[in-house]
Every structure is written in structure tokens, then in C-alpha cells.
Amino acid sequence: MEIRPDIVAVMVGVAVEGPYSYRVPAHMSVTRGSIVAVPLGPRLTLGVVWGPPKDMVAHNRLR
């Protein structure tokens, strides 16, 4: 199933409670389970697209 929203939840490999929300670039199409590189602090890290975000996050807080 293709996910085509502007924002998706991404689970990253660090000790956190749940997934982070990230903006999907306009040129990119992702599906649940897609492996993506996302910014986490000062570096890029790999994560897995978890699906739509559980809670809406302010757009100015997204990367």
C-alpha cells in the first residue's frame, strides 16, 4: 500500500518511545516498511516508515 501524505511516522534505531514524524519530499513516494535516511540531530540515520503519524506535529517542527 502506497502512502502519499506529506508527513509520515518513521521509526529510527535509537532508544525512544515511538516513531518521529518527518515530511516526505514532493519527489519521493514511500510505503509502509520503506527504509529511509532521515536527519536525527546533526547526522543522517536509517529508519523505517511506520505509516501515518499518530499525532499531528506543527509543520515548523518537521524536517
Task: Explain what the structure shows.
0% of the residues lie in helices and 46% in strands. By secondary structure, the protein is mainly beta. The strands form two sheets. A four-stranded antiparallel sheet has the order 3-2-6-5, with no helix packed on it. Strands 1-4 form a two-stranded antiparallel ribbon. A hairpin with a 7-residue loop joins strand 2 and strand 3 (20-23). The mean pLDDT is 82.
Largest sheet: 4 strands, antiparallel
Query: Would you list the SSEs in sequence order as H and E?
Result: EEEEEE
Can you list the strand order of the major beta sheet? 3-2-6-5
**Are there runs of 5+ residues with pLDDT below 50, and where?**
none
Return the domain count.
Answer: 1
| Structural class estimated from helices and strands | mainly beta
Overall pLDDT score: 82
Fraction of residues in β-strands: over 45%
Taken from the alpha-carbon principal axes, the silhouette is: globular
Number of helices: 0
Strand elements, count: 6
- Percent range for helical residues? under 10%
Distance between the termini: 24 Å
Q: Over the alpha carbons, how many angstroms does the gyration radius reach?
A: 11 Å
